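Me: I keep going back and forth on a fold encoding question. No explanation is needed for now; the record alone will do.

Assistant:
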Amino acid sequence: MPGFLRQFLLISSFLLSFSVFAQEGKELDITSDISQIDEEKYPGALVMYKNTKQVYIVHEGIEMWCDLAFHYKDENFVRAIGNVRMNQGDTISMRSNYAEYNGDTQFAWASGKVNLQTPTATLDTDTLYFDRIKQQAYYRSGGTLRDTASVITSKIGRYFLDQDKYSFIQNVKVTNPEYVIDSEQLDFYSESGVAYLYGPSTITSETSTVYCERGYYDTRNDNGYFVKNSRIDYDNRTVFGDSLYFDRPTNFASATNNIRVIDTANSSIIKGHYAEVYKAKDSVFITKRAVAITVQEQDSVYVHGDRLVVTGVPDKRIVRGYYNVRLFKSDLSGKCDSIHINQESGLTQMIGKPILWSGLSQMTGDSIHLKSNTKTEQLDSLRVFENAFLAQQDTIPLYDQPDRLGYNQVKGVTLFGTFKDNALHQIDIVKNAESINFMRGEDGVLQGVDKSKSASITAILEENALVEVTKWRQVDGDVFPLTKFPKDQREFPGLNWRGDERLLTKEDIFKGEAPFTLTKIQGIPLPEIEEDFFDNSIPEEKLDIPGASRLKPSDFKNREEDAPGIGVPVNDKATLQPGANDEEEDNTDTPQLRELPKEKVKDSINGTHEG
């Protein structure tokens, strides 16, 4: 009967020009080699047997064959037994062990190894109900659907002929040679091969696991997008975002809004509002308030730029930041045009007008390199190349300029610095070194100003304050009382104090930037919950069940445990309108994402992506 069911289902799609009322009551046409009446054993039935040919049944364009049939003409009802086969033209073929069909209500039921074949899929189940008027088939004892790409199993399934759509509920599993989908509720369109996932769902393969609570997946092209608590787990990266796009053949993913990329291999996190991940190249590109966080036990490092690119296998990660780069650590912060971080060597290169603040000290030069100990994760040393300049603002106003503070200054060609307990401790300026040092006694009283030139200078800092300056091979210089020190010589040319730009908190990495507005995302709507398959409003005594049917009134009742757990009733139009539910606006529009992946990945790897 399942085949019958499905046959009728598809048949009904070809017979929409006939009214339900015109069909109702039309008699079944049945022929066989042998027929007989046995009122004592089969009251009211014409028993029809196979001899050389199977029993042949026709009704409204549907053809059915079986080995044995019981035709109850008064009730316009037939029971078919043994090798039941039903065809609708050359588009549908169904087989089962047993089938029933009511010509008046156009309701069919099939059981026993039910197999329905259509041009796009094959369904196997043990019991199938078919309502030809609704053009729907239904099973609730387990079923298996096979199409060209996948096998789908579930406890409950409902087929809508007019949409070529299956709605699966409870223990839904999609098995593909490349992946397995597990979900509690899934809608599948067999012609296109696309699936919509609702509720906690996972897509698992050898290289990744996708999780979402609402998603779309193209089972034939092997890609999809996911929303609501969505994430993608790779071997050593996990990608979170309000909306995720994933293409398995290229192992590419992109994400939009509130993104986190967690690198478990290197204890780092990247955040932003647009990201691309290309696993084959071990590459992550992120922009829109992008920030990379190196998680350390006591003091994490934050790097922000207009865009960030992370490449390389786990033990050789490279982080690149471009345009308006800011760096923050509790005792160190800086700015530059671009940054290059080698996590294997612990080397950070600040390039393009770099500036670095360590405590009260400000350092500038053509480029700045920071070196960290990869084992202790603490800063080890730094170098400032070409035009190295260190300045430190004094704490007491100048006696003759009470509205100004003096600056301790050291400059030269190259600066070498070392850290102690993660704080800058010693500085060596080599080649053409010059210094201006406001000297104070132990009581803090200004004693004079030391201005000199030498081959190199060593400066010692304690608690971020310059406490000692040693000049090597001094060639010029003297100590002046402040009253004798010319005002126009108190600052070296090139001093540009930018203390008001110093980053004091991790939130300061975004200071001065315009407020950010998240991209409006058009997402996946909630599924529509159709009317119940059975009409529970009909009293049992009024159900049109032929006396010879194996079905009971309880078989025509919808069970609460079989109902969809997620969705909106079809008559609740307000909820189904796009934008009517703010909670559903955190999803991503699939065309927008599917147009950009491959080119953007290529650009981001080559360093040409403009974000």
Q: What stands out?
A: Helices lie at 2-14, 20-23, 573-576, 590-594, 597-606. The first helix runs from residue 2 to 14. The mean pLDDT is 82. The longest strand covers residues 379-398.
